[in-house]
Amino acid sequence: MHMTHEYAHEKASHPTRNAVTAMHVCLILDNSALTDTVVQQLERAGRHRLTVLHDLSELTQSTLTPDAILIGLQQFTALRENEPMVYLRLSRRSRIVVVLSSRELLDAAHILAFADAWVFEDLNVDRINELLDLGLEGHCLMPKQFLSRLGVDEIRLTLLPRLSEPEFETLRLLGQGLNNRTIANQLDLSEAVIKSMVRSVLSKLHFRNRTEAGVFAARQQGALLSARSGITPPQMHVAAGHRPNA
After folding, report:
1. CB 155 within 8 A of CB 102
2. Is the pLDDT of residue 113 over 70?
3. Does domain 149-228 correspond to CATH entry 1.10.10.10?
């Protein structure tokens, strides 16, 4: 038998501004600090019944039928990959909202399509009550920077530390429009090694092709060295107006 912590709240006696119905929300997030933050935000609304689960096995074995499941990216990935039938069962009866950080967006793009909505812990978790209401209706509030070329660039800049030094130099030289042979000559490596490094750069930073990588490197040449040195790119700002269907 699994153990849960429940936070029950009586619905306010006076009508809310939008007369939004109370929901049963189940949380299974990736760490306790994030769980505490989300619980605090939800408790401020005072209208949801919350159930906090501690690991994926509790979720898969649970007979709960919450209106919404707030789930961390790591937990959701494991659910989709290891328990596909459980995912299907849960997705039929509950809205699934994934909580992740903005820097995880590109890595997680392939899996997020299977969720009903997303919440970014570093950008809009303070609006979790609004986002839950939208998610229950099948909508998602997307920060506008993710819809722009420069916004995606900022995410990629945070991923630069995953490149090795030769891979980083290869990316920088792609920004100069050089072919593999010329890059190989400049780095004193074989053309076959450079070809392999280009593939690795495309994979690690989620580029579709070398042209996209080269355009990024040329556009962000001033920011590349700063980001590589660990200097944080400019803070991304949250937009509140876009509500695409999940």
Report:
1. yes
2. yes
3. yes
Q: Is the pTM of this model over 0.90?
A: no
The whole-angstrom separation of Cα 67 and Cα 65 is 7
Angle subtended at Cα 117 by Cα 115 and Cα 121, rounded to the nearest 5 degrees: 110
Q: Look at residue 53 in the predicted model and tell me its pLDDT.
A: 94
pLDDT tens sequence across 209-231 = 999 999 999 999 888 888 776 54
| Domain boundary assignment for the chain | 5-141, 149-228
Q: Which CATH superfamily is domain 5-141 in?
A: Response regulator (3.40.50.2300)
Question: Is 35 exposed, middle or buried, given 0-12, 13-18 or 19+ CB atoms closer than 10 A?
Answer: buried
